[in-house]
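Quick one, tokens below. Sequence please?
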């Protein structure tokens, strides 16, 4: 039977309800799957919250550049027994002498100079925010790659279901034909049994392929965080990027690779950290301003019955930690060594990226070659099966030869699909390595 007829049989089977009705399913495109993943994926949401934390940390409110303003108030009440001797020789004995005092004030403090420690801390916080952006970008890229991997796995499994369905239909026709030949004494029982065994095996393969397809859909549903049992169709039209140039990708990797950018940000943070420790060698100058109000109500033994005072006062202090036991020196040395390690890590990462790029490029080219070769091979196998099928109808080939031609065709059909989506994933891996994944439309 012609392959086009088998495909029609598959579509009829679907429409009859042996599989989920196509009209009852929504088509989920690659871009829609990515949007859902970026909207709902837990890793992406965590990355967004971490980015918001970094945004809060780099605010001017967290840099100590603003002054501090405090308010204070107090009240005291005294009830005492007093024996007072005056200079003129008289004495006074007071029992239950009452006195009270009240105070209130506003205190404004500002650090005028701290060795530029605040400035370097502010710059460091900005770099940490940029680092959080890169970490969020890493989560997004990983979510995209994971989503597309699951999406294309569904495409592979869907093709396996189609191929297995075709195999079942062909095997049914073969069983019918060998049975008819046996009934009219033109064949033997062994051919019928072999055909029945092959049909049973093809039916088992179809059941396994159907289960694998359902599980692949569940996997994608979990990634994009929607109902695990939600059913959908996918877009099987696949396009490769044209004019994929090796040198352009390599240059983009050196400029945009997220791991390399993260390491460079950590190096900048380390440099600012070293400057923060260096600032501790310098003095700190702070200014204080206070506006206060005080009132006291004295007992009878006091010269003044009551007193009230209010007014503004200001001052400045200079503090200089001349020696702290070597803590700052140790911190400085460790910061320098940390920065040296980061420089070594950058060299190591660049070396590893060069290796990874060459491996990814070779893998991509090889999979593209395999895909194009398998497509050519598919044409030959389709022609071979069609010829074998015609000869089988005429009784010119055996049932075993017919089965072998069928198996060859099914194998190549499966290989074509697998090589196509493997090549696409290799292409996506190259884009991720070059830092261009977020700039690509799917």
């Amino acid at each position: 039977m012609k392959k086009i007829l088998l495909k029609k049989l598959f579509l009829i089977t679907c429409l009859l309800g042996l599989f989920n009705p196509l009209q009852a399913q929504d088509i989920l495109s690659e871009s829609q799957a990515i949007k859902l993943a970026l909207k709902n994926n837990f890793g992406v949401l965590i990355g967004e919250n971490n980015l918001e934390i970094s945004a809060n940390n780099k605010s001017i409110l967290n840099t100590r550049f603003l002054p501090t303003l405090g308010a204070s108030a107090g009240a005291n009440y005294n009830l005492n027994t007093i024996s007072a001797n005056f200079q003129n020789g008289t004495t006074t004995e007071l029992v239950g002498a009452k006195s009270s005092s009240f105070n209130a004030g506003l205190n404004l403090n500002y650090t005028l100079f701290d060795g530029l420690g605040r400035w370097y801390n502010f710059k460091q916080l900005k770099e940490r925010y940029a680092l959080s952006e890169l970490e969020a970008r890493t989560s997004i890229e990983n979510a995209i790659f994971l989503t597309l991997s699951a999406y294309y796995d569904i495409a592979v499994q869907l093709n396996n279901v189609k191929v297995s369905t075709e195999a079942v239909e062909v095997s049914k026709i073969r069983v019918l034909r060998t049975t008819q030949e046996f009934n009219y004494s033109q064949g033997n029982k062994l051919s019928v049994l072999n055909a029945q065994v092959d049909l049973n095996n093809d039916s088992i393969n179809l059941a396994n392929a159907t289960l694998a397809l359902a599980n692949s859909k569940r996997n994608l549903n979990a990634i994009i965080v929607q109902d695990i049992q939600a059913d959908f169709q996918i877009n099987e039209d696949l396009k490769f990027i044209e004019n994929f140039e090796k040198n352009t990708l390599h240059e983009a990797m050196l400029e945009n690779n997220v791991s390399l950018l993260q390491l460079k940000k950590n190096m900048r943070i380390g440099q600012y950290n070293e400057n923060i420790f260096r600032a501790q060698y310098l003095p700190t100058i702070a200014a204080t301003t206070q506006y206060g109000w005080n009132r006291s109500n004295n007992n009878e033994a006091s010269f003044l019955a009551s007193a009230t005072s209010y007014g503004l006062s200001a001052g400045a202090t200079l503090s200089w930690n001349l020696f702290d036991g070597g803590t700052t020196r140790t911190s400085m040395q460790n910061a320098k060594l940390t920065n040296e390690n980061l420089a070594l890590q950058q060299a190591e990462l660049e070396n590893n990226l060069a290796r990874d790029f060459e491996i990814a490029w070779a893998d991509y080219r090889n999979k593209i070659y395999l895909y194009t070769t398998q497509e050519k091979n598919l044409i030959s196998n389709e022609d071979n099966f069609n010829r074998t099928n015609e000869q089988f109808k005429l009784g010119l080939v055996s049932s075993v030869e017919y089965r072998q031609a069928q198996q060859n065709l099914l194998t190549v059909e499966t290989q074509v699909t697998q090589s196509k989506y493997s090549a696409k994933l290799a292409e996506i891996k190259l884009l991720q390595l070059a830092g261009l994944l977020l700039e690509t439309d799917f």
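The longest strand covers residues 91-113. Residues 117-183 form the longest helix (67 residues).
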